[in-house]
Design brief:
The chain is 37% helix and 18% strand. With 342 residues, the chain is an alpha/beta fold. Strand 7 and strand 8 form a beta hairpin. Helix 9 packs across helix 10. Keywords: Cell cycle, Cell division, Cytoplasm, Cytoskeleton, GTP-binding, Nucleotide-binding.
Length: 342
């Protein structure tokens, strides 16, 4: 005798409403499938040493997820060349599982001559696209292809209070074409509120002047509702953030913050810094959109280019340099992408 199954969500409607079909039950089916599979998020952090990149990542996910937190050495040397290193963690919250991979780039911007220091990072991002492509075009491909593609690159800008450096412009100009870049002003508590606002405005003007399109990209807004929400985010870019793993007692509450002789800077207080806005963007409101743009825009441009070049032959080696890209259609708008290998 078979065990009776509980009615599907929405089945109770059927008894009293003959017009009810049950299409809305697909949402519950999708939720159950997603909960079983879990989620993946790959974040790259780029910026010179001493800007608090590891601390901010640990603060974002309320755990020690950065590479330095796990494999730190007493005195970590500055590498002679950029060393790209990644570490993965399985995180679970309220039954939702996520594999988080943090990709660090020690050595970036730490040398006297930083010319072309973007190249190893560009190559790494494209290598992940290539790896995914090879898995995708295999005749006997996996049911679920492991996704190592970089979904988001957090670019840390030093709190100089002046303007974007040539290194910042060069990096974001090139990398914004192949990955979602979210710029942040590191250690923003070193600036006064007036200095911070002026610096943010100067950076936005620098981004516009150099044609740098950071996330969320205006041309990928799907409708007027998206445009309205994302316009508010674009007005806040770059996010002026403070990270801390230390808890302090403030008005009877335990809060993450940085203690100074003038008081406590509360990390999650939007009157003190914009950490909460950054966290909401990356995790609570736009995580899936960031992944969707990676897959349907950045990776798709790479995939089309490579298949045109190789004739869809598995394991064909990518060329050293990709030049004169053809325009690709993205949401009805033409987008030129330049993919350059080291």
């Amino acid at each position: 005798m078979s065990t009776p199954q509980p009615p599907a969500k929405g089945a109770s409607h059927a008894a009293g409403d003959f017009s009810y079909v049950g299409i809305d039950a697909i949402l519950e089916q999708m939720r159950r499938k997603a909960m079983k599979q879990g989620f993946e998020l790959n974040i790259m952090i780029v910026g010179q040493s001493g800007l608090g990149k590891s601390t901010l990542m640990n603060t974002l996910f309320k755990s020690k997820v950065s590479r330095k937190s796990v494999v730190s050495t007493p005195e970590e040397r500055i590498p002679k060349t950029i060393e790209i290193k990644s570490i993965s963690h399985d995180i679970e919250e309220k039954g939702v599982r996520m594999k988080l991979t943090v990709i660090d780039t020690p050595g970036f911007g730490d040398h006297i001559n930083n010319e072309n220091c973007w190249q190893p990072i560009m190559k790494f991002i494209n290598d992940q696209y290539e790896q995914y492509l090879q898995e995708e075009i295999n005749i006997n491909r996996k049911k679920r292809i492991p996704d190592s593609r970089v979904h988001c690159c957090m670019y840390f800008i030093p709190p100089t209070g002046h303007c974007l450096r040539p290194l910042d412009v060069e990096f974001m100009s090139r990398l914004s074409k192949v990955v979602n870049i979210v710029p942040v002003i590191a250690k923003a508590d070193t600036l006064t509120l007036e200095e911070r606002d002026f610096f943010k405005q100067t950076i936005r003007e620098g981004l516009r002047a150099n044609g740098i399109d950071v996330y969320p990209q205006e041309e990928f807004d799907e409708d007027s509702d998206d445009r309205m929400i994302n316009d508010k985010i674009r007005e806040m870019i770059p996010f002026a953030v403070v990270g801390s793993n230390q808890e302090y007692q403030v008005n009877g509450k335990r809060l993450l913050g940085r203690k100074t002789k003038w008081g406590t800077i509360e990390v999650e207080n939007i009157a003190h810094c914009e950490f909460a806005h950054l966290r909401d963007l990356l995790i609570r409101t736009h995580m899936q959109n960031i992944k969707d743009i990676t897959s349907s825009i950045h990776y798709e441009v790479y995939r089309v280019r490579r298949l045109n070049e190789t004739g869809a032959q598995p394991n064909a080696q990518p060329p050293n340099t990709l030049v004169n890209p053809q325009p690709q259609q993205a949401n009805g708008r033409s987008k030129y992408i330049e993919l350059i290998y080291k």
